Amino acid sequence: MWDIHALAPLATGQITWTDLVEDSLLEQDENGLLHIQYETDLFDLRLDTLVRLDDTTIFESFTPGFNGGPINIPAGVEVFSSEDDLKLEVSSAEIYEVAIVSGLLTYTLESYVGGPLDITYDLPGVTLGNGTTLFLEASTESASGDVPWVFTGTEDLTNANLDLQGASGSSSNRIAALLDVVVSPLATEAVPVFGTDSVRITLNFQDVVIGYARGYFGNRELDSNTEIDFSPFLESFGTLNLQELSIDVDIKNTIGADATFRLDRIEGVNNGSGVELTHSIIGDNINLTRALDNGNGQVTSNDYAFLIDETNSNITTLVGSIPQVLEVDAFVEMNPLGDISGGNDFIYTDQPFEANLLMDLPLCLGTNGLTFKDSLNVAAFDTDLVADAELTFRITNSFPLGLVSMDARFFSDLGEEFDVISDLSMETGTFLELGNVIANTSESVQTISRADLDIMRQGGYIELTLQMISSGEIVKMSGDEFIDVDILMNGNIELSYE
Amino acid sequence: MKKLLLVFGLLLCLAQVQAQRSILMQKDSLVCASSVMLDIDASAEYRSNAFDNELLDKLVFGGYISDELSQRQFDRISDLGTFGAQATGRFSFALMQDSVFGLADWGWQGQVEVRNHFELAMDGDLFHLVFDGNAAYAGESAELSNFWLDYMAYQKLGFGLVHKPSLSGFVISAVNGERFERTTILEGALFTAEDGDSLNLAYHGAWMRSDTSVIGFGSGNGLGVSLDGQLNIPLQEDRGYVTLGLRDIGFVSWNEASLDYRADSSWAYTGIPLSDIIDDDEDGIPNFEDSLYYDQTKGSMLRWLPGSAYARLMHRIQERDYFEIEMRFRPVRAFNPLIRGGYFFVLNENTTLGATVTYGGYGNVRAGIAVEQWVNDRFFVAFSAEDVVGPFRREGLGAHAALRLSYLLKSHAE
Questions:
Q1: B:62-101 residues touching chain A, CB 8 A cutoff
Q2: Which of A93, A166, A346, B143 is within CB 3.0–4.6 Å of B125 for a Cys-Cys bond?
Q3: What total number of domains does chain B contain?
Q4: Nearest-by-Cβ selection for A379 from B64, B129, B277
Q5: Is the pLDDT of residue B12 over 60?
Q6: Size of interface A-B (CB pairs under 8 A)
């Protein structure tokens, strides 16, 4: 066992905006100014919210309509017929017409009659993708005692249309169905039919995806509670002086139904306390008339947009308080005046009702004291390293924000706590013009003991606290800013071998 | 230190000597007249030109190696630090009455031998890096070139001929390769930036080793052949001998499971990426071994035994004393040509005492002794130590001892 005096780089890394903010949220404008843009859907009112055809099984049983028997029915003579509507479970709306994107219809015909029959089952309201209506037919053989003769089949419902107005043409959620049962003309003798004999039909709609629906969607009220993860840091305190901050709210009604939209609350929440947005639009109803269906899936929507900025709201104060979360409550009501379209509400799957919020945060800011706190997991060191050393933190900062102090406290998995880094300051970058900042380098020496290392190598987490300033000036960020961190070790390492 | 001496003593029990001076100089007729000569030889040695007993003691048995101790080693390394150790045990016989193919002066001989051999050579910079770290090299390159480490353990079983009048002869042995390790750095350097913000390692070398799945005494990881032999040339008027000898001239072909790592690359290190320390992906700290580039192959390989050649002159001064000069060569960088000079005094018919001075091999100058004793013209005991002071000092640079026990079976004529 012996000690060596080692001089070596311990760790290196670079912190850029993409380490602090998700890459997809960053956008550079035409002047080279970096923006953080948070975009979220307050409402995404899709067709399946309003109209949905769940997997449905419809079972129908038909009998001759007399008691006793048998009655011998000659070849070619009708046994019985039926005209009926099949009720579909189409959510709670009153739907007259549906266009299906994809799905399957599985059917089963069962005959309990003791002779050959010709069965036809006509569903004129179901128009298949090839333009024909659905027509099921089967020539049965004689049932054998209690064991029926069975016929099964499947129809592809891709691009099918359902007329859900029933046989009367004025119902909703119903498919007209016509059944005709005759003794087979090829029967060599009359077929004995009992009053208890039956023909049974089972229809099973599976995996039906609807692309368009028309009907009355009902008077419906929907609430939205959205939380936007606004900060990359766990905790932050202080204020930011932000400029040109704005929120765009865009509402697009592409549904053939009137709607009322209301933004009830926008609140930035930081550690339990919040700042609510004040703006004339908050709490006001915005009425959006129904969209126009131009045919062939073309829709003329009814849109509404409004801008929230520092001229008409307290948005700068709200965001300047460095919220961790932005809470947005919104409300929408469909058909607030009832069925004024006479059952002609419509919706296309690919054109939902949307209400989007886009927050644009140009990184043009200043602060006299901003504190960030975060927790970082530290991997366990798979080594028996024993050392005491001076750690030199060399930090090269091109952010025009200075680091007043940085403290790191290490918490082991066993809950032990000790200082790793304390009072580590960093010079600010020298801002010349946007995109042209001179990086400045600072060095700070910290010591770490063998006892510290014993705890750290087990792994745990570091609680990091950073305090930053901009000397009261407004600074602009281009996105090219970086902080290079090099940690150099100069110390004694104990070596041994087995 | 006591532990080190104890282990050295145990090694000696296993181990061979050239301590046969009085056989040649006084009792050669006795040997020729016997029917069989049986020998047990044992020798053990460790020797360095820089690394002393105290360091070896700490490395082998544990303990803290202080800055003072490592600095003492470093101060001794002027060019290349060398270290060698070996332990050899041998049983041999020579049939002195039989003839060979009708040649009465020739007889058969054979041997069984066990040998472990280790040698090391390193530049002072490498020693300094290992035991003192790289801080002293800030802004400079530490030289890693000329590193050589070789270890081989093997057993031999051989037969040969002996020329009875001169006790010259040779043995050709089959060799069982037990284990070998060899590390060489042909060229290498570690540059440490002035402020320590980067390290640059250039390395060109190899690491070879025998099958690691089968280890232990007698493990058959290779097969080979070796030649041992010596030619004793008598001087006129019985004034002595000139001896020319070869030892362990041969090779072992190590089996298909032998490993060969070769590297000729460089590696720049500027620190562990912070993203790996701040464990976002939970992959943990990267393994440095993954950053070093090397080729690994597995397969049979041929390696020379740690052979040597020697020449010796023994010359009578007066009737009861003589001197000896020996030179030994082994063509590796860890071993410098060895020169030994000795003075021997025949105390009486059965006892010879001697003093030697040796220089070279793995070490520097050392003074030794030799004692040879005959008992009843049948038993012969010889003991020699190349360094009588070194083993008992912390700063001593090695130890050596050799013991020979011989027994002469009487001939039928007697």
A1: 62-67, 70
A2: B143
A3: 1
A4: B277
A5: no
A6: 98
